[in-house]
Amino acid sequence: MNREWTEEELEILRRDREAKVPVPITAAKLNRPVPATYLRARMIGTQVQTHQAWEEATVARLRELVRADPPMTDKQIAAELCRTITQVRWKLKDLNLIGVRDLSKLAKATASSTVRPAVAKPAVVLKQASAHPPQPSRIPSPRQPEKPMVKAPVIDARTLLNVALRRLERDLETRLKTVVAETEAGMMQAAVAAIAAKRAIDNRLAELRARPIEEAKPEPSRPSKSTAETAQAESSPQKRRPPSSKPAPKPAVRTMVPAAPRGPVAREVQAPPEPTKIIVLDVPAPSRAAPQDAGPAQTSGRGGWKSVRRDPARVAAQARGKATSRADAVDLAQAAQVAIEQFISQRGVTKAEAAASQSLVTRLQARGYIVVREGDGWVIDQRHQIANEAELTAFAEARGISLGMAA
Questions:
Q1: DSSP codes of every residue in 184-216
Q2: Within this chain, do residues 71 and 116 fall inside the same structural domain, yes or no?
Q3: What is the helix (H) or strand (E) element at residue 378, kind and residue range?
Q4: In the structure, what pLDDT confidence band is assigned to residue 53 with cuts at 50, 70 and 90?
Q5: Domain contains 267
Q6: C-beta separation of 125 from 79 below 8 A
Q7: Taking each helix axis from N to C terminus, what angle separates 312-319 and 157-210, rounded to the nearest 10 degrees?
C-alpha cells in the first residue's frame, strides 16, 4: 500500500511541473512510482499532457485517411491530423480500423518511396491533398475544469494495531536476546571467579603442607586471685572446719587454645615464684585423690572425630580469612555455588538439567563434594576417578543419593 502524500511532496510536484521537469525525475526525487506520480499530477490539476478530444469531423477524416489508396503510414496520418502517433494508434484500435489498410501495398509504397527521388514525392502528396476538400479549422477544446483533490483513504485501526504489535514483538525479541547475553556473561564471570578461588585455596594448602609446623608453646600459668584468697581463708584459724570424709572435688580441666602468633613474639619476663606457705593443722588433712590424666577432649566434626586442640598454622590462616582444609574449601565452593544460583534467579533465567547424571552431580556438589568433568567421566575430590554414569550412580547410592532423590 502506497503511503499518503504529504503537503511538502505535493508542493515539490507542483514546482517541478511548473519548471517542466520530467515526471520520472520528480518520482525518483520523491521515492515514488512513476505512474503514481503521473496520476497525482493529474489529480492536483497540473496536466502532464493536454487532452485533445476527437470530434466527429476529425474521426471522419481519420477514416478517409485510413482507406486512402495508396495507403498511408501512421506517421503520415498523425502529421495530417496534427496528433501524435500514439493517439492515432489508440483511436484506430478503438474504431477497429487496424486491419483496413493493405499492409502489402503499404510496404511496397514505403519501399518505392525510398527508391524514388525525393522530388517526385511532394507532387503526389499535393495532388492527393488537392483532391480532398479543405479541412475545417480545428476548434480548440475548452480547458477542463480542475478536479478537486481526492482525500487519501483513512487507514483502518486494525492495520495500525497489527503494525504496532509487530514493532513491539521486534523490540521484545531484541531485549530478550540482550538479557540472555548478559546472563550468560554473568554466569561465565561467576564460574571464572569460583575457579580462581578454588585455585587460590589449592595453592594455599600446598604452601601450608610444605611449611614446617611449629608447635605452640603453652603460656606459663599464673595463680589467680581467687586461688590466693582461698589459701588465705584456709590458713585463718577462725574458719577451720573438721575434715570431711568425702574427697575434694576434682578441678575442671580447661583446654587452652594458644593464640595465633603474628610477627615476632616477645618473650615474657617470668615473675619469681612465690614462697610456699606452710599450714599447721590440729587434725591431719584428708588425703586427696591423685588427679587422673584427662586425655584431650574429643568432639565430632565434619571430618569425623578429631582433637579440640587446633593447629597453630591453621589458627593463623583462619585469622587471615583463608581456607586450610577440605571442609573450608567445601564451604567456599558451596558459597560460590549459592552466589551463582542467586545471580541466575535474580535475572529470571533457569537452566534445566539435561540428564540424570547432571542431577547426581548437582546433589553431590550440594553435599560438599568437588566434582570436575574430565572427558567422558568425572573426578570427585581429586581422588575418585569415575569413568561412566553407572559408576557415578553407584558412588552416589553408596552415599545415600539415588536417582529418585536427584529428580
A1: HHHHHHHHHHHHHHHHHHHHHHHHHHHSPPPPP
A2: yes
A3: strand 377-380
A4: confident
A5: no
A6: no
A7: 150
pLDDT grade for 172, boundaries at 50, 70 and 90: very high
**118 falls within a domain:** yes
Same domain, 100 and 115: yes
Number of domains within the chain: 3
Q: Which three three-digit cell numbers place residue 48?
A: 502532464
Strand partners, 379: 372, 385
Instruction: Tell me the C-alpha to C-alpha distance, in Å, between residue 155 and each of 2, 32, 46, 51.
Output: 11, 19, 27, 33
311-334: string of b/e by CB count within 10 Å (b at 16+)?
A: bbbbbbbbeeebbbbbebbbebbe
C-alpha cell, 305: 572425630
Q: pLDDT value at position 165?
A: 92
For 174, phi then psi, to 5°, come to -65, -40
Asked whether residue 340 is assigned to any structural domain, the reply reads: yes
Residues 386 and 320 in one domain: no
Would you say 387 and 377 are in contact if contact means Cβ atoms under 8 Å apart? yes
* Same structural domain, 385 and 358: yes
Q: Are residues 359 and 385 in the same domain?
A: yes
Q: What is the mean pLDDT of the chain?
A: 73
Nearest to 40 by CA among 197, 149, 131: 149
Q: Which residues contact 111 (CB under 8 A, 6 or more apart)?
A: none
The C-alpha cell at 138 is 480545428
Determine the structural domain holding residue 318 and report its residue range: 182-209+308-351
- pLDDT given at position 319: 55
Residue 36 corresponds to which cell in the numbers above? 503514481
pLDDT digits (tens, 9 = 90+) for 251-282: 555 555 555 555 444 444 455 666 666 665 66
The per-residue pLDDT for 300 is 44
Tell whether 72 and 123 lie within a shared domain.
Answer: yes
Residue 109 in domain: yes
Q: Are residues 319 and 383 in the same domain?
A: no
Residue 205 has pLDDT above 80, yes or no: yes
Helices (H), 211-242: 225-235
What would the mean pLDDT of 83-92 be, rounded to a whole number? 84
What is the 3 state secondary structure string of 113-180? HHHCCCCHHHHHHHHHHHHCCCCCCCCCCCCCCCCCCCCCCCCCHHHHHHHHHHHHHHHHHHHHHHHH
